[in-house]
Description:
By secondary structure, the chain is α+β, with helices and mostly antiparallel strands. The protein has a single domain, classed as CATH 2.40.50.180. It is 18% helix and 41% strand. The protein is built from 4 helices and 11 strands, in the order H-E-E-E-E-E-H-E-E-E-E-E-E-H-H. Strand 1 and strand 2 form a beta hairpin. The radius of gyration is 19 Å and the shape is globular. Pfam families: CheW. Residues 22-166 form the CheW-like domain. It comes from Rubrivivax gelatinosus. This is Chemotaxis protein CheW.
Amino acid sequence: MNTLAHKPLAQAAAMAPAALEPAQYLTFMLGSEVFAISILQVKEIIEYHNLTEVPMMPPSVRGVINLRGAVVPVVDPQARFGRASSPVGKKTCFVIVEVQADEDRHVIGVIVDAVNEVLDIAATEIEPPPSFGARLRADFLTGMAKVGGRFVILLDVDQVLRLDEVGSHEQPRADAAEPAVA
């Protein structure tokens, strides 16, 4: 009976090193903040070009691109977060990600201001998302990591890019860009 009681502990101990292995995250800039998403969801990174606007789309859906013959919608996370979109600059690019929606997987482009690097972040370095004070919805976050003296916001890209939600709670871009009244 003693061996049966220790067997689950031995299994948990054997699995613990895998859980402590660092995971890789692609870090990128949105405005002045550093964000990251799991590298496992990133298909590729391409330079900003040939974005075709589509009429009657919500503000966060900036348009579509042709990616080797496939039409890929492009989402602006700044608009999704209720913020003003960043101007397109020299380092602006599309991060092409694959997201899970029910049983389906979808390829979506995400506009970012600049791609930084791929970082190994150990699970022990990730704190849970703050319960208050965050300027993002809590369900958009998987956690916060401190890397090189800066906080990196870890996004749950499946939540941020939920197709059934994109555009459903958004204000027009003009409203998002207006300064707050003090």
